[in-house]
Amino acid sequence: MLKVLTNKILQVKATGQGGRQRCQTDRLGYPHKYRPLRPIHGFCTGDIVKTIIPKGVNTAKGVNTGTYVARLCPYSNGRGEIYPTTGKKRIGIKLEYVEKPIHRKDGYSYA
After folding, report:
1. How much is the pTM?
2. 106 close to 56: Cβ distance less than 8 angstroms
């Protein structure tokens, strides 16, 4: 007999470990952004992190200020992008604004 201890079902979706694509190209095929395979400042592409962007730092009007929990895509120059689940499509940040990692990339998406 199966005894269920929770009333919420965990949905797991396999997203993969990522691709071997080393750089992102523009519409003409020239290299645009480099994405190395090794961790950068301890972060990998796909990690879910908590980011606090101070007021008046990211834009002149302070549009992107606040606290975000989002996927991270770090770059080798010390910057990166976060992809929040709500609101904007992506936000460019410095990696020093990353407060702490919440979940390391393991190839699955949880809901």
Report:
1. 0.70
2. no
Quick one: which of 76, 78, 75, 82 has its CA closest to 53? 82
Joined together, the tokens standing for residue 21 give: 């694509």
Query: Position of tokens 């604004």?
Result: 97
Contact criterion met (CB below 8 Å) for 87 and 53? no
Tokens of 63: 């549009």
CB 95 within 8 A of CB 80: yes
More confident residue, 84 or 109: 84
**pLDDT tens for each residue of 21-49:** 778 888 998 988 777 667 888 888 888 99
